[in-house]
Design brief:
The complex is a heterodimer of chains A (273) and B (311). Chain A has 273 residues and is α/β, with parallel strands linked by helices. Helices cover 41% and strands 12% of the residues of chain A. Chain A is built from 10 helices and 7 strands. In chain A, helix 1 runs antiparallel to helix 10, helix 3 packs across helix 4 and helix 5 runs parallel beside helix 6. The longest helix of chain A is centred in the N-terminal third of the chain and has 22 residues. With 311 residues, chain B is α/β, with parallel strands linked by helices. In chain B, the strands form 3 sheets. In chain B, strands 3-2-4-5-7-6-12 form a 7-stranded mixed sheet, sandwiched between helices. In chain B, helix 9 packs across helix 13. Chain B is globular. Classes of the chains: A alpha/beta (273), B alpha/beta (311). Chains A and B meet through helix 5 and helix 6 of A and helix 4 and helix 6 of B.
């Protein structure tokens, strides 16, 4: 798949993030929209997941460590045919497979239950370590929030991944600079995130524009060629990316758009899904 | 009589299991020699991972491995395995219903001299409250080996509570019978039913002579499975009981006593006596001194049961 095709999908995913959180009247659009290109690169270029092998453990796995960004995963899975697009509007509703935070037991293509911050990266470490142990070549990908790096468990996981030389693990930090209570450097400064991972023994790649599909693709390729170390890609992103009144606004962390906001946002995004 | 700590029996059983099954991975948090996972490490070092002093990460790592199809035995002291890592167990392991066997050693006050910081007395309560989680506490070497092997075959998460102290055998090869989740009637009696778990089984057996001297001949049941509870057996055996006694080396809040009370109070109310720790921390001391000081030894069982019958 070309990045031109993925760019079209990015518009669809953003529209769906807004439509599904609007339908649910709650959810986390801001941090979902910042990770759209990251998810599309992972599913579009990196992972060997197919409809045929989706139920198998013998494939690459993805863990959304920042589980509240579930809409970006559901939207991406819909783009690649793992979830019917019309099902997206059931997000967060009673009986839906699309739980507020991802559940691996309701959606085949979801690889872990996440939502409690800090735990997803550790489960990804467990998957990667299992693969190493069984000489399985599949890779493991995870997306971590920047605010999530305030959780001590992230650093326990970082230590373990470097200790066991998990070069089959790639962690992307969605560095949008905002958490629920505001600017991450004001709430509890986790920066410099790159230097911390470096100090823990990781290969660190800086992606200056985390919405640039070409730059992201190159970073993942570079990660693949790094041996003996896990890779962290620090992707500089914009919370609420794509909708002017949502961009860089912590207020859109956990609030759904109303009817008027949805209409304005969809118009601004363009596209037609 | 032979003595063996249940942690030691765990180590032996796990070493046998990893030899037989390639899909078992073992995790420990810098306590391999104490939890006895070192025995499995000797057999299959490539499938034993020391996760360092980071129990929360260890439990989530275990979940990730289980999601890949491995059967994971994750160990630390009961205090840190279930206390420090409670939420990782709840959200990473139990909610996805993953195949992780959490084996916590050094439970209860018989940890001894290390004192209250290391004496897990709430672990049954907190593990029992988690959906999907099952809770087992074997009493001696034979039963521990049986539990450790049975949970390999039984899919899903569970917590196995193990002890540091070397304890007497309750069973012989002739008397031992085992089915995961089923209580074992050690002795049939009348009027009083004592339900005991873990090391309290030995204490209860040790109290029988003293009770007999007071004319009390209880039915004694070893409850190795606190969740699921063997409801059928308990309801049947307690039918004619004037007093139902629970014995546990654990706080009476949320443990075996609570589990039995939840059953009986809703289906067949009986007068109960709950022997356990009464909302108190332990302290340093020898295991024998502590069992005496906190009213959990055979002598205390005789006194408490006869007093409760007299009331």
């Amino acid at each position: 798949m070309t990045n031109e095709q993925l760019a079209l999908k990015a518009v669809n995913v953003r529209r769906n993030i807004l439509k599904m959180t609007h339908a649910a009247k709650c959810g986390h659009p801001g941090g979902s929209m910042s990770a759209v290109e990251i998810l599309l690169t992972i599913y579009g270029h990196e992972m060997n997941i197919t409809k045929e092998n989706v139920t198998s453990n013998n494939r690459d796995k993805f863990v959304l460590s920042k589980g509240h960004a579930a809409p970006v995963v559901y939207g991406t899975l819909a783009e690649f045919g793992f979830i019917p697009e019309e099902e997206l509007l059931t997000l967060r509703k009673l009986g839906s497979r699309l739980q507020g935070h991802p559940n691996m037991n309701t959606v085949e293509a979801v690889d872990m239950c996440t939502g409690s911050l800090g735990q997803g990266i550790s489960t990804a470490v467990g998957m990667a370590l299992s693969n190493k142990c069984h000489k399985n070549e599949n890779r493991v990908y995870t997306v971590l929030g920047d605010g999530e790096c305030e959780e001590g468990q992230v650093w326990e996981a970082a230590m373990a991944a470097a200790h066991y030389q998990l070069d089959n693990l790639v962690v992307v930090v969605d560095f949008n600079g905002l958490q629920i209570d505001g600017d991450i450097t004001k709430v509890m400064n986790p920066t410099p995130i790159d230097k911390k991972f470096e100090a823990f023994g990781w290969n660190v790649i800086d992606v200056k524009d985390g919405h640039d599909l070409d730059e992201l693709q190159k970073a993942f390729e570079a990660a693949r060629s790094c041996k003996g170390k896990p890779t962290m890609i620090l992707a500089h992103t914009i919370k609420g990316k794509g909708v002017s009144f949502m961009e860089n606004n912590a207020g859109w962390h956990g609030v759904a758009p109303n009817d008027d906001e949805l209409a304005r946002a969809l118009e601004e995004l363009g596209g037609n899904n | 009589m032979a003595k063996c700590a249940t942690r030691e029996a765990y180590g032996k059983a796990l070493a046998e299991l990893v030899r037989e099954h390639e899909n078992i991975l073992v995790l420990d948090a810098d306590l391999t020699k104490s939890t006895k996972t070192s025995m499995a490490q000797e057999v299959a070092p490539e499938r034993h991972f020391n996760m360092g002093i980071a129990e929360g990460n260890m439990m989530s790592v275990a979940a990730g491995m289980a999601a890949q199809g491995d059967v994971v035995y994750a160990s630390s002291f009961a205090m840190f395995a279930t206390g420090r890592a409670f939420e990782q167990i709840r959200n990473s392991i139990a909610y996805p219903n993953l195949n992780v066997k959490i084996c916590g050693t050094h439970s209860g006050i018989t940890v001894g001299e290390d004192g209250a910081s290391h004496q897990a007395i709430e672990d049954i309560a907190i593990m029992r409250a988690i959906p999907n989680m099952r809770v087992f506490q074997p009493c001696d070497e034979r039963e521990t080996k049986a539990v450790i092997k049975a949970v390999y075959e039984s899919k899903g998460p569970c917590y196995v509570r193990l002890g540091r102290l070397a304890v007497e055998d309750v069973y012989t090869d002739e008397t031992f019978k085992f089915e995961l989740g089923k209580g074992n009637v050690i002795r049939e009696g009348k009027d009083v039913v004592i339900l005991a778990s873990g090391y309290m089984v030995q204490q209860t057996v040790g109290a029988l002579e003293g009770l007999a001297a007071k004319g009390i001949t209880p039915t004694v049941i070893d409850i190795h499975s606190i969740k699921p509870l063997d409801e059928e057996l308990i309801l049947e055996k307690c039918k004619d009981a004037k007093l139902v006694v629970t014995c546990e080396e654990h706080t009476v809040i949320g443990g075996l006593g609570s589990a039995v009370s939840e059953l009986l109070s809703t289906k067949m109310p009986r007068k109960m006596l709950m022997i356990g720790l009464n909302d108190t921390f332990g302290e340093s001391g020898t295991p024998v001194a502590l069992m005496d000081a906190y009213g959990l030894d055979s002598k205390a069982i005789v006194e408490k049961v006869s007093k409760a019958l007299g009331e």
